[in-house]
User: What shape does this take?
Amino acid sequence: MIDDLPPLRDVIRTHDLRAKKSFGQNFLLDLNLTARIARAAGDLAGSDVLEVGPGPGGLTRGLLAEGARRVLAIEKDARCLPALAEVEAAYPGRLQVIEGDALAVDALAHLTPPIKIVSNLPYNVGTELLIRWMTPQEWPPFWDSLTLMFQREVAERIVAKPGSKAYGRLALMVQWRADAKIVLHLPPEAFTPPPKVSSAVVHITRLDAPRYPADAKTLERVVAMAFNQRRKMLRAALKGLHPQIEDLLNASGIPPTSRAEEIGLEQFCALARAVKDA
Ligand code: SAM
Assistant: This one.
């Protein structure tokens, strides 16, 4: 056992935490697995950890047992708070729980750098938070790494490389400013209740500065337009961007007859610079 607290099945029974679909609840009950996810976040000693959606506390316990300096956990379902209070009591001064919606709470006010984010979240909230965490006003962001559970298909879109079907906006947005890799695959049976799809944990480490220079808004616009019509040649897909788009594509080393999914990050950044300068 990783701690002296009761097994998660007992915690769920004691506090009557039957999973609710409306909260996107699929719990991890194997503490060896949650400790593995915590270890995938790297060395936690000396870091504050932000955990969104602790639920009955399986991953929270993994993070604390693996040595996180402090964990700030934000949970929307008030039913989970008594179970989390027991974890708090077992790790005095190291766990703070906030009841609320992670999309609305100002977590930063309660955290001290260095900060890592580790979460097993419902799929829709996870993608929205990922986009927020990857697109702050200023770079570098407040966090050093993100270790997040996603539906497997979304995890593959985050780490995808040019030439693959999964390659697109999400891959470019993340990989422009961070290194991303899948560190763990989980079958549906790893969760209670099991979801319909497989999951994967993605570990994202931020770079100090974006990999190639570009204006964030211009890059986002170019990439969005290119992939909105991913089957079209870029000279057609990007026609609305600039009257001389063919010249700009050529100047950026991109054949105007190529398609979005063949183009790497470096070329998209070159195109974003050319569009901005034009
Ligand atoms: N971390 C736990 C585990 O691994 O067993 C629970 C994972 S469950 C997939 C997602 C958790 O996120 C649930 O406890 C749910 O109540 C919580 N949640 C859902 N939406 C949330 C939101 N907007 N803000 C905070 N927590 C949320």
Q: What stands out?
A: Strands lie at 27-28, 48-52, 70-75, 95-99, 115-120, 145-151, 178-186, 191-192, 199-206.
